[in-house]
Amino acid sequence: MKIFILLILVLPYYSIAQYEGIYNLPLPETFTNMKKKVLIYSTPNPNYAAFETEEKQFIVWKHRTIIKATEDITIKETGAYLLRNGVWWKRASFNPKQTKEMFATKRLELAKGDSLVFEKNWRYGSYTQTGWNFWYVVATTASGEMIYGYDILETKGRFQDNTQVLPLKKKDSQLTWTGKAGDSDYRLTGQITDFKGRIVVKEDVLMACSITLVMDSMTHEIPSLISHLKGKDFFSVKKYPESTFQSEKIEIQSPNNYLVEGTLCLRGVCQKEAFNVALKITDKAYEAVFSASIDRTKYGMLFASSKEKKGKYSIADEIQFLGTFSFMKDYPGSMPWNQLKVP
């Protein structure tokens, strides 16, 4: 069943001003010579997002789709259209065999007043996303006439309590690292340039966040330094290509300032960490500004550290991280659909 549900994963998007007139848009030419005589609708409509499980990894829009016959019919096809570039774009179509499976039925012949129900016509995603689509049905009457039905479904880009889950905008974000000598003030600073993540906010309040760093994107003007940092003495990038942070507890320290506690996984080792985050709110983004001091020895990076038995202690145990992660506000309601690009 899920293979069919996942075909409806991605919806195109409109800014709020562009929602007007959607119900008056021309239908696809497929329906030009047919009469609208079949009732099909999805409920609830509008459809709000929710987390699928307590782990909060995936977001789901839960709705059911019902087909009801207004006269004796035989269903020939079902499917979905999405709103894209100002027109309805065909996302998927399902033959009788597929339709039977989705609607959990053995027969597609309906007498007047009969109904079929697709109980879990759910859409999944990683972020809360505004969108519009419609499910349709094509059928024949007892006399052989081709007829159809459709109903537009509004997908809300938020939970019912106004929670939003928003994506990190890589091009507007930055992260630097700094390491220093263990016995002097000498220090070197570079960047990590590739990352992804998301933020959970409710009415401009930070609720949760998660970040994934691509460690092979570490940069510095000294190639030999980066090669060493990516090697076994430090981040062992070939074996552990990504590092992650997942928040578990967030406390408000003052307006727009938070103490974020969670689990950081570096080099295959996961440890509890806590750091301060300032949340800057702009018209188009939530910008999380933070600094963190990480003890590398907790993650197995003992080279030239205070804990290494051999050699002289020459590199500080702490690595400093300073960053600004920008998350798309009102994703993607603050942008026209024809300008939207995946972050």
Would you write up a description of this structure?
Strand 16 (195-202) and strand 17 (205-214) form a beta hairpin. With 343 residues, the protein is mainly beta. Residues 1-18 and 333-343 have low confidence and may be disordered. The strands form three sheets. The protein has an eleven-stranded antiparallel sheet, with helices on one face. Strands 1, 3, 4, 6, 7, 8, 10, 11 and 12 form a nine-stranded mixed sheet that branches. It contains three helices and 23 strands. The protein has two domains: 2-159, Sandwich (Immunoglobulin-like); 163-339, Lipocalin (Beta Barrel), CATH 2.40.128.110.
SSE diagram, text form:
Elements: H1 2-5, E1 35-36, E2 38-43, E3 47-51, E4 59-61, E5 64-69, E6 73-84, E7 87-94, H2 96-102, E8 109-110, E9 115-118, E10 123-125, E11 131-141, E12 146-159, E13 163-167, E14 174-181, E15 187-192, E16 195-202, E17 205-214, E18 218-219, H3 223-230, E19 242-254, E20 257-266, E21 269-281, E22 285-295, E23 315-328
Parallel strand pairs: 1-12, 3-12
Antiparallel strand pairs: 2-5, 3-4, 4-10, 5-9, 6-7, 6-8, 6-11, 11-12, 13-16, 14-15, 14-23, 15-18, 16-17, 17-19, 19-20, 20-21, 21-22, 22-23
Notable characteristics:
343 residues, mainly beta, Immunoglobulin-like, Lipocalin, 2 domains, 11-stranded antiparallel sheet, elongated
- Beta-strand percentage range: over 45%
Major beta sheet, specifics? 11 strands, antiparallel
The CATH superfamily name of the largest domain is: Lipid/polyisoprenoid-binding, YceI-like
Q: What global shape is seen? A: elongated
What is the count of β-strands? Answer: 23
How do the strands line up in the largest sheet?
13-16-17-19-20-21-22-23-14-15-18
CATH architecture annotation of the largest domain:
Beta Barrel
Q: List low-pLDDT spans.
A: 1-18, 333-343
Structural class: mainly beta
From the alpha carbons, calculate the radius of gyration and give it in angstroms. 26 Å
Top CATH class of the largest domain? Mainly Beta
